[in-house]
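Shipment paperwork, digital attachment
Item: protein structure file
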Amino acid sequence: MSATEQLRWLTPLLLAGALGCVSNPAPRGWLERAQPVQSDIWGSWIEISTPEGGLIAEGELLGVDRDTAFVLPLDGRLYPVPLSATGGAKLAFYDSRRSEIGMWAFLGSALTISNGYFAIFTLPAHLIAGTVAWSRASHRPIRHVKQPSDWDNVRMYSRFPAGVPQSLPRTLPTKPYAP
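Attachment content:
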């Protein structure tokens, strides 16, 4: 099998794997890597939508009370969202840096040229494994809220997981980040 025939065969597979990736809703540079996020004082990034799919609020998740989610957009003004008005939410709690995984998968695939005729086997193996790893890495830091009971599962990713303080000011400092 020639290299062009291999590419024709593998292109649909790569496209299918890439389409399985999830986009991270947080602004670039706002989220930490997985290890530093364990000691980060800031909440996770959340996008809350209406039942029809429109955007209600996006920003740092400050906390979730019995009937309200508190979001801090980049402008620093506290935004309470009644849970009864939400249709769902998408929460990102760290930056997976999946581009690094893609880079290593690409380099590993390119290096199979040194395998000679065995590249017929090793190139597809590298491409498949790299695509699967890239797709899985994009899903790992994302949590979805689809029903009211799911809000309890994302509460721990907020700035105030034990509950929002009663005296919380209406304007708060936002997380400094470099876009």
